Amino acid sequence: MTEDAVIGSLPALEMRGITKRYPGVVANDHIDLDVRRGEIHALLGENGAGKTTLMNVLYGLARPDEGTILLDGQEIRIAGPSDAIARGISMVHQHFMVVPVLSVAENVILGAETMSGPVFVDRRKAAARVVALAQRFGFDLDPEARVGSLSVGQQQRVEILKALYRDARILVLDEPTAVLTPQETGEIFTLLRRLAADGRSIVFISHKLYEVLEVADRITVIRRGRVIGERRPGETTEEELAELMVGRAVELTADRGVSRVGETVLRVEGLRVADDRRHEVVPGADLEIKAGEILGIAGVAGNGQDELVQALIGLRRSLGGKVTLAGRDVTGFSPRRMNEAGVGYVPGDRHKFGLILSFPVYDNLILTSYYRPPFARGPLRNDAAILESAATQIERFDIRTPSAQVTTSTLSGGNQQKVVVAREFDRELKLLVLDQPTRGLDVGSIEFIHRQIIAKRDAGTAVLLVSAELDEVLEMSDRIAVMYRGRIVAQLDGRTADKAEVGLLMATGGRDTATITATPAATIEETRA
Ligand code: ATP
């Protein structure tokens, strides 16, 4: 065996018997994980299984109660993130840590400056290194570009470049594809394979089983803090992985059944909306949703979907147009008035609009109803009713938390999302507006939430579903509206729509419809040229 082959077969990283306890939960229960050189190792597990905790232990953000970490066979103690980085361990976060006003190269260098004297940074040398690294790994990035002007996928590459600049040999990516388009996902996978071929090790956390099967060399599944199994992609299936994760068989595709459509509930006419920079990103949207119908909006992120939804719900002022709810003009209503008018809302950014993380779980469950009976008795809070309702929702929506009293920030990402969903779904609604309702959720929770959405529809609620997951839009929607550059460019029947066709409409806005051959022209109703 060559020296390289020997090193290749040795684990670059070993985590042995890692145990981490928090009040009321064992987040990691004697976890063993080994990652080889040049390997893409996927970490799978349901929401709250302990994946992030294990990676926080590796990155020095959480101190384990038991267990050891070995790097290239040597036992190490990681004092904190800077110590981890110094040892070649880097983390690419979901919420990027980039400075929008700085250039790509400046962002990469920031915090790891090359010193050419006691105080001066040799920027030229550093920038040249950034360019060389970007070229070597085929990053499609202009080092001079301002990071704020880059797409989400490009900003993520800046984060990866930052890690490489710091000589990361072990890279942890926590749900890197949750915010990416399918094309960007493909690009990031190509990049990860190049990094692995260069001898680096990658730990990849994802809830998307088909992605894990596509990109990983090995998969470790954890459930409730314990390692449940290890598989290679060739010897397993999505179904088996789902069952390992959740502990029961999971339906991976939703059965939307037949919708019984009633009267028009939501009518949007000529709605014009600007973004934070006052650019009119929605120059006039027209939509209609009937009772008992799910309208899905398909579109590449950043095509005005967020602004449209925020204007609809009263979180953003519209520049013009009209919104009617069950015949009543609700244009310009505040979020609270919309809520009282019978509108439920699951926001895309749960931290900004959905939750107050420093509040206990029970308070977040009544965030939009605390001032109403039974939760308020005159000016007083009815704590007994609040806690009783919280206990029911935690049970019904399977929110994994030691109790309703814990601070919401301590819940895993997926369980925070379930808190928002429980609050918004658990009452009678005329309209339910869902923005990325299953982002970050495990397959079991997605199955559950999809069933809840269908049940709401069947109870006569009109549902607006915005999702970056094209498969979700295709599976769930009775009708699909494709949004491109702020306009609804096409509306299709959800049952007959073809994935390639919708993808093409999303990417081109329909300018290229001549190449769409799969569907008869009659099913594409062009609402705007
Ligand atoms: P998800 O897929 O939802 O992100 P996860 O597998 O990453 O889930 P973790 O975030 O590791 O899950 O959470 C594991 C458990 O540890 C959860 O029960 C969570 O509530 C608990 N936990 C994590 N961090 C803390 C903390 N700082 N304080 C208290 N409990 C915590």
Description:
The structure is a single chain. The protein is an alpha/beta fold. The protein folds into two domains: 3-246, 3-Layer(aba) Sandwich (Rossmann fold); 264-342 and 428-528, P-loop containing nucleotide triphosphate hydrolases (Rossmann fold, 3-Layer(aba) Sandwich). 32% of the residues lie in helices and 25% in strands. It contains 18 helices and 22 strands. The strands form five sheets. It has a six-stranded mixed β-sheet, sandwiched between helices. The chain has a six-stranded mixed β-sheet with strand order 16-19-20-13-21-22, sandwiched between helices. Strands 2-1-4-5 form a four-stranded antiparallel β-sheet. Helix 15 (413-425) packs parallel to helix 16 (443-458). It is globular and about 70 Å long. The model is unreliable at 1-7, 115-119 and 512-529 (pLDDT under 50).
Question: Biggest β-sheet, characterized?
Answer: 6 strands, mixed
CATH topology annotation of the largest domain: Rossmann fold
Radius of gyration: 24 Å
* Envelope shape: globular
Structural class: alpha/beta
Number of strands: 22
Q: Give the names of the bound compounds.
A: adenosine-5'-triphosphate
